[in-house]
Amino acid sequence: MPQFAHRCRTPARCFTLFLLGLPVLLTGCASNSWGAVGLRDDVVTIKQFIPTYPWIHDDEGRSRGLQARVYFVSAETEKGVHVPGRISVDLNVLHPQPQGGYEREQVYRWEFSESEAAGFRVRTRAVLGYSYGFVLCWPDDIDLSGEEVQLTFRYHRQEGGIVERRGPRFRVPLPPGYTSPPRAAQPTPARQPAESTGAAPRANSNGQN
Question: Considering just the CA atoms, what is the radius of gyration of the chain in Å?
Answer without folding.
Answer: 17
